[in-house]
User: Which sequence fits this backbone?
């Protein structure tokens, strides 16, 4: 797989009240969460929709046989064909109840399948500093995306912002499920998010290379003890990390990022 076309540096805001930031800086570990821990109730859990034009008897039969043959390779295909025809004739595959149940199953699969770390292109966003870095008292860590990608078998995908749920192709072969994890409401567009994702790795950590971290930015409200402790860690480990302070601008509602 080719290196994703993501910006060279992506950022992660951290609250210093938890130890995840120490895991990153001290132990080179980046935590991947499961989708049920996201703060947006729609995130990766909204009801997926197929184009109703695709729900023909021929397509449904083909999809039913494809899935079941993969899961039960020793069962004759004719058994799946007959079952699919019978269920289609009853209207089961086109009923709202069937897709509701299928949606619940898909939600569980996504939760069990993907470990995700949310990143952003923004290092000076006032809302993100307030929400994710404990009212500007935390830090923002800049990661080198090429090094991240080489650290483990991960994908880096851009989040798509939309006013409506995406249509999932009936024969999506995994691409549709990825779109469920990378589509959010336009209300979140200000975050300009990318997602580091790894299969079958929710609630686990990936090991980073030493040069994965390129920047650490200190919030304008960080306490001096925490700031000095992090600077000391960087010096002791001899890491080539650029350090910055956030300074409140005198004339506009913005932050100035000043190298130390």
Assistant:
């Amino acid at each position: 797989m080719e290196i994703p076309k993501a910006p060279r540096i992506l950022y992660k805001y951290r609250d210093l009240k938890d130890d995840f930031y120490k895991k990153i800086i001290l132990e080179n570990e980046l935590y991947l969460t499961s989708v049920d821990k996201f703060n947006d109730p729609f995130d990766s859990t909204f009801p997926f929709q197929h184009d109703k034009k695709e729900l023909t008897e021929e397509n449904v039969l083909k999809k039913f046989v494809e899935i079941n043959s993969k899961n039960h390779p020793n069962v004759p295909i004719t058994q799946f064909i007959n079952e699919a025809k019978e269920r289609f004739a009853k209207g089961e595959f086109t009923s709202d109840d069937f897709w509701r149940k299928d949606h619940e199953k898909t939600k569980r699969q996504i939760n069990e399948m993907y470990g995700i770390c949310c990143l952003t292109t923004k290092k000076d966003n006032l809302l993100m500093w307030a929400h994710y870095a404990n009212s500007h008292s935390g830090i923002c860590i800049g990661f080198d995306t090429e090094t991240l990608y080489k650290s483990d078998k991960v994908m880096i995908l851009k989040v798509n912002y939309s006013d409506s749920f995406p249509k999932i192709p009936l024969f999506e072969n995994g691409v549709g499920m990825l779109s469920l994890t990378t589509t959010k409401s336009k209300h979140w567009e200000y975050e300009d998010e990318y997602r580091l994702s790894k299969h079958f790795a929710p609630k686990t950590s990936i090991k980073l290379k030493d040069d994965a971290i390129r920047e650490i930015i200190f919030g304008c409200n960080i306490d001096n003890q925490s700031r000095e402790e992090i600077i000391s860690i960087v010096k002791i480990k001899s890491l080539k990390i650029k350090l910055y302070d956030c300074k409140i601008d005198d004339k506009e509602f913005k932050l100035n990022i000043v190298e130390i």
Residues 52-110 form one domain. DSSP finds eight helices and twelve strands in the chain. The helical segments are 20-27, 57-71, 77-89, 96-113, 126-132, 145-151, 175-181, 224-236.
